[in-house]
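Researcher: I'm preparing a figure for a lab meeting and need a structural model of a single chain. I don't have an experimental structure, so a prediction will have to do for now. The sequence is pasted below. Please return the structure as C-alpha cells so I can convert it later.
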Amino acid sequence: MLYAATSPEAEQGGYYGPRWALVGPPGPTRPPKKGLDRDAAARLRAAASERLTGVSVQACT
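Model: Understood. Here is the structure written out cell by cell.
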C-alpha cells in the first residue's frame, strides 16, 4: 500500500505487490485470478450492501 500511495511510478487503478508473488521488492504485478472474477465481485458488493444497509438487493428489483 505504501508503494501505491507514494511512488511517482504508481498509476491510478494499478495493482501493486511483492514482485515475486509473496516476497520481493514492491512493484506492479498482476492480481490473482479470483480478484478478476466479476461475478464474485458482484456477489460480494450485493452481500456487503445488504449487510451495511439492512435492505435486501432482491427487494429493490
